[in-house]
Write a structure and sequence with these properties.
Blueprint (H helix, E strand, L loop, with lengths): L3 E8 L2 E7 L4 E4 L6 H12 L7 E3 L10 H10 L3 E4 L3 H8 L10 E4 L4 E3 L2 E8 L7 E10 L2 E8 L17 E5 L4 H6 L11 H14 L6 E5 L8 H14 L7 E4 L9 E2 L2
Parallel strand pairs: 3-4, 4-5, 5-6, 10-11, 11-12, 12-13
Antiparallel strand pairs: 1-2, 1-14, 2-3, 7-8, 8-9, 9-10
Helix pairs in contact: 1-2, 5-6
């Protein structure tokens, strides 16, 4: 079967990404605005009794983890992995005063940790100051070598993470808004998210530094009124063209409210 990736949802109304092999399945984020929606989605994609090894949380915004999601994960006995800096905020923001002791919460630190076949290396990315946010370099062994993936959502400055993007096999990265549409429809929170040109710039710089291209890149978390698929793709292609860099990999855009196609990484 190899390793497959799918974006289940990718927008300010909900985020959930899936990494699956024959033996393992891990979600990155699980943000749903109702328990019914969360249950229905997990059952649709992972069966009536979802076989999910863990959900790893990037940060505590409600579109990445919520009270409804916590209730659902507890119901199915699915463990939650969250950075130790975020446990108190998770309880304060999402427990709503209810006893959710049945939710299996396990913390991670800045050190690497394993979930089944995956080795996660967390690193912090700049987002809203009150919500420490983490991206992940993920190692997966298949065939005769280790394969590397990057999941980086919700951040506004990628200059410090470029080295993490060099010579990886798969990249998921935020490309939230078009600057001209943001000028027409101002939004304070957009300052904490990546613009299309910035996403193109860090992808271009990472490719220039690397010896090989990623196999596939997916951009996501597109704003519903300040971006669209064509703008995101055109902006990234333009950045590569202006820098004389060949765009020699497949690039996809994650749908906002529907699942993406399943992408085979290896």
């Amino acid at each position: 079967m190899g390793l497959h990736f799918k974006s289940i949802r990718s927008s300010s109304s909900g985020n959930c990404l899936a990494l699956c092999t024959e033996k393992s399945c891990v979600l990155i984020d699980c943000g749903f605005n109702s328990q019914i929606s969360c249950e229905r989605t997990l059952r649709t994609h992972f069966g009536h009794n979802p076989q999910i090894d863990a959900v790893v949380i990037t940060h505590n915004h409600g579109d990445h983890i919520s009270y409804s999601s916590l209730r659902t994960l507890g119901q199915y006995g699915i463990p939650l992995r969250i950075h130790e800096n975020n446990i108190n905020t998770l309880q304060e923001k999402h427990f709503r005063g209810y006893n959710l002791d049945h939710v299996k919460i396990q913390s991670f630190s800045d050190k690497s940790f394993d979930i089944c076949e995956f080795e996660f290396h967390p690193f912090r990315v700049p987002h809203q100051p009150d919500y420490p946010t983490y991206a992940f370099l993920i190692h997966y062994h298949h065939g005769h070598r280790w394969h590397k993936l990057i999941i980086a959502s919700d951040f506004y400055d990628g200059r410090e993470i470029i080295d993490h993007l060099v010579d990886v096999d798969f990249i998921y990265i935020e490309s939230n808004h078009d600057p001209q549409l943001l000028a027409l429809y101002p939004n304070y929170n957009s300052r904490f998210h990546m613009s299309n040109p910035k996403a193109g710039e860090i992808l271009c710089n990472a490719r220039e530094k690397g010896k090989r291209s990623p196999k596939i890149v997916m951009v996501g978390h597109l704003s519903c009124i300040r971006n669209n698929t064509d703008l995101a793709l055109c902006s990234i292609c333009k950045t590569f063209r202006q820098n004389g860099q060949k765009l020699d990999f497949k690039i996809f855009v994650a749908p906002r409210y529907e699942p993406s196609s399943t992408i085979r990484i290896v």
